[in-house]
Design goal:
Strand order of the largest sheet: 8-10-7-11-9-12-13
Strand content: 15-25%
CATH architecture of the largest domain: Alpha-Beta Complex
Number of strands: 13
Order of helices and strands: HEEEHEHEEEHHEHEHEHEEE
Largest sheet: 7 strands, mixed
CATH superfamily of the largest domain: PurM-like C-terminal domain
CATH class of the largest domain: Alpha Beta
Shape: globular
Radius of gyration: 23 Å
């Protein structure tokens, strides 16, 4: 029986079913299905002149200044959470790693590892969120890659992002530059992201929803650097929280640190959830906070610059750097004593970012 020419269009390819369709192994196989996934889902979301080159690399114009590059892989579970999802998180996490060098983020790459059977509707939601976060931050996703693994050998979606930025001459911000006498500042309440994730996993409910603090920090940081170019260290306290961040910097710089328990900002809901879950807020991940270490005569200028930005309005000075060849981080407790804030032992919160 011959085909009805009125019902069949030569060369017709059925569009992706973005409402009911699923990821198939062929979507990562390098053939027509993969090309269709790129053309109908990824390309429209991330569209820009670099991506339209459609090569296996992006040909970029070299910017003035020193190049900064950072990479991060995102395996958060669940994929969607109050205040964000793995898509926006993938953008924010890598941009913040670039920005904490004092750099202006410019470009991102995005690598997706998808599990066979993952709903295309959820993938589109993630990609759209990622694209919106990149547009808001003023950066472009200029190249990417997609792989598909067999059903049961992944967990929906893993995303790797690499960020490139440029840092101006004269800015020297690094984890090995903390000096005795420096002040330690944080940009706001700690632990929101980690507790938002854990509350969802454990089906905990509170009088108010605890939302992730996931955000791009580069504009906040730019204001801080403009106010005090002599800032010594910047770091976003992600996995391992504030405790891990301070221990990392203390080890890099060969100094000690003392922070005041009463000065460390933690929301009541987060504190209550941590107590219920047996967690310490100092070790809980953040995705929209920055720790700054600066000379004492710059501390007030940095604090004012932080508070002038919406993402830093709750910024505070929490302690100072001291001389200590052992590199201990200590906390002055509300009872007047001191205790060590050591590295975390094991994995307190798996799959948090």
């Amino acid at each position: 029986m011959s085909e009805n020419p009125k019902r069949t269009r030569r060369g017709y390819i059925r569009p992706l079913d973005l409402k009911h369709g699923k990821v198939e192994l062929s979507h990562g196989g390098g053939g027509r299905a993969m090309s269709q996934l790129i053309d109908e889902l990824f390309q429209p979301a991330f569209d820009n002149p670099y991506l339209r080159q459609a090569n296996d690399q992006a040909l970029l114009t070299r910017p003035e200044g020193r190049i900064v590059m950072a990479t991060d892989s995102h395996v958060v579970s669940p994929l969607f959470f109050p205040g964000g999802d793995i898509g926006s998180l993938a953008v924010h996490g890598t941009l913040n790693d670039v920005a904490t060098s004092g750099a202006r983020p410019l470009w991102l790459s995005a690598g997706f590892i998808l599990e066979e059977g993952f709903p295309l509707a959820d993938l589109k939601r993630i990609v759209d969120s990622m694209a919106a976060a990149a547009r808001t931050a003023g950066v472009q996703v200029v190249t990417g890659d997609t792989k598909v693994v067999e059903r049961g050998k992944g967990d929906g979606v893993f995303i790797n992002t690499t960020g490139v930025g440029v840092v101006p001459e004269g800015i020297e911000i690094s984890g090995d530059r903390a000096r005795p006498g420096d002040r330690i500042l944080v940009s706001g309440f700690l632990g929101d992201h980690g507790v938002a994730i854990m509350s969802l996993r454990e089906n905990l409910s509170f009088s108010t929803t605890i939302e992730s603090d996931s955000a791009a920090l580069h504009e906040l940081i730019a204001g801080m650097v403009a106010a005090a170019p002599e800032i010594h260290c910047l770091r976003d306290p992600t996995r391992g929280g504030l405790a891990a961040t301070l221990n990392e910097i203390a080890r890099q710089s060969g100094v000690g640190m003392v922070v005041r328990e009463d000065a460390i900002p933690v929301r009541e809901e987060v504190d209550a959830a941590c107590e219920l879950l047996g967690l310490d807020p100092l070790y809980v991940a953040n995705e929209g906070k920055v720790v700054a270490i600066c000379p004492p005569d710059s501390a007030e200028a940095v604090l004012a610059a932080m508070r002038a930005h919406p993402l830093g309005r709750d910024a505070v000075i929490i302690g100072e750097v001291i001389a200590d060849e052992h590199g201990f981080v200590q906390m002055e407790t509300s009872f007047g004593g001191r205790r060590n804030v050591d590295w975390i032992s094991g994995e307190q919160l798996p799959r948090i970012c």
